[in-house]
């Protein structure tokens, strides 16, 4: 057997994925399951979580728990951590993938309610969940935590400033938590560029494709399955000497 055969193996691991019912979260959840992990799939809509959990259970031997959770609510995040540990006894992989990016026409039209909602979902929730799960990981057998940021964190456009600020904070938290929970817990971040998920349905796709051909090195947007390699790398022992890293998966966005 080759020494690299088991690098991406997650057999016996428990993975908790927020925003796990669709898009990048669904792709990561299914990939983890195929690699051997059991799943806790969380998002605001329980029926969507149940649908993805049902897909996971179709993989022989895999278990999946669907949990409704609004990650912008501190108490719901605490309840999510508790139910995951009550059901499975531990969490080995945490993915903070849930997010939202509502656009606006004018920056001076951003309301306090909108600003708070964006920061709560994209920054406050991941902070609390990482603190709770990471502390338990560090006190136990360790684990891997994956933040899902955005290229907006480093190249923001005018119509997503609060979102970009929250994702920049997520990049910073990656480094801070890596130091807080090392050496037993690794904390890394995937920084996606434009992916063709449900969010892209609101885009002017003809305009996007034209722009992508000239401004993105690979000339297109990403497909959800193309996030899987980075996620499996950070989740598994393949990244055993990697922590505090922010990895761009963006097709070569300038």
Key words describing this protein structure:
254 residues; Rossmann fold; 7-stranded parallel beta sheet; 7 helices; 7 strands; 42% helix
Folded structure, characterized:
- The protein is of the alpha/beta class and 254 residues long.
- It has a single domain, classed as 3-Layer(aba) Sandwich (Rossmann fold).
- Helices cover 42% and strands 15% of the residues.
- The protein is built from seven helices and seven strands; from the N terminus they run E-H-E-H-E-H-E-H-E-H-E-H-H-E.
- Strands 3-2-1-4-5-6-7 form a seven-stranded parallel beta sheet, with helices on both faces.
- The longest helix has 28 residues.
- The radius of gyration is 18 Å and the shape is globular.
- It starts with 13 loop residues before the first strand and ends in a 5-residue tail after the last strand.
Question: How many structural domains does the protein architecture include?
Answer: 1
Number of helical stretches of at least 4 residues: 7
| Ends distance | 41 Å
> CATH top level?
Alpha Beta
Tertiary shape: globular
List the helices and strands and how they pair.
Layout: E1 14-18, H1 23-34, E2 38-43, H2 46-57, E3 64-68, H3 74-88, E4 93-96, H4 112-139, E5 143-148, H5 161-181, E6 185-192, H6 205-215, H7 228-235, E7 246-249
Parallel strand pairs: 1-2, 1-4, 2-3, 4-5, 5-6, 6-7
Helix pairs in contact: 1-7, 3-4, 4-5
